[in-house]
Amino acid sequence: MTSPVEALREALTAQFASDPAVMILLGDPIRLYDERSTRAAFPHASWGRIETHERGADGVRLLEIRLGLDVWYRDGEPGPVLDALADSVTAAMLPGLPDPVLPEPWRLITLTPAYRDVFATRERRLKRGLLRLRAVMGDASQTQQGDLP
């Protein structure tokens, strides 16, 4: 059984792979890896830290997920890649688009870019961009009809 975090990462990876603005910057197929690659062409991205917190009250179970995406860029600025990834996440949450496929009983309530920044590394020519995403999922089996948006 796929965990809700794994399903969300897979859905985001598919979203990025189908976004022309992201593909222009990260290639086709996109250079997005489960962990940092020392052999990948630049720029490339990798999944970073994941935090999950269970929340909720009065019969509503919520799962807050924070996902980190690292962008590695040599001899340039990762800012445009961060912007394209953040825009892709925002576009994925537009009304009318299909919800990501999540395991039962989870349903995605919100997904937003929460933070972005660029950092210098020990290697002078290499920069690291960081994009943090915040998602909130609800357990649809514990709610009354209409409780979740």
Summarize the structure.
This protein has helices spanning 4-17, 20-26, 79-92; strands spanning 32-33, 44-57, 60-74, 106-120, 126-139. It is of the alpha+beta class and 149 residues long.
Could you characterize the architecture of this molecule?
The structure is a single chain. The protein is α+β, with helices and mostly antiparallel strands and 149 residues long. The protein has three helices and five strands. Strands 1-2-3-5-4 form a five-stranded mixed sheet, covered by helices on one side. Helix 2 runs antiparallel to helix 3. The longest helix has 14 residues. The relative contact order is 0.21.
List the keywords.
alpha+beta, five-stranded mixed beta sheet, 40% strand, 149 residues
Record the strand order, biggest sheet.
Answer: 1-2-3-5-4
pLDDT under 50 segments (min length 5)? none
User: How would you name the oligomeric state of the polypeptide chains in this document?
Assistant: single chain
Helix content: 10-25%
What's the Cα radius of gyration?
16 Å
Task: Itemize the secondary structure elements and their pairings.
Layout: H1 4-17, H2 20-26, E1 32-33, E2 44-57, E3 60-74, H3 79-92, E4 106-120, E5 126-139
Parallel strand pairs: 1-2
Antiparallel strand pairs: 2-3, 3-5, 4-5
Helix pairs in contact: 2-3
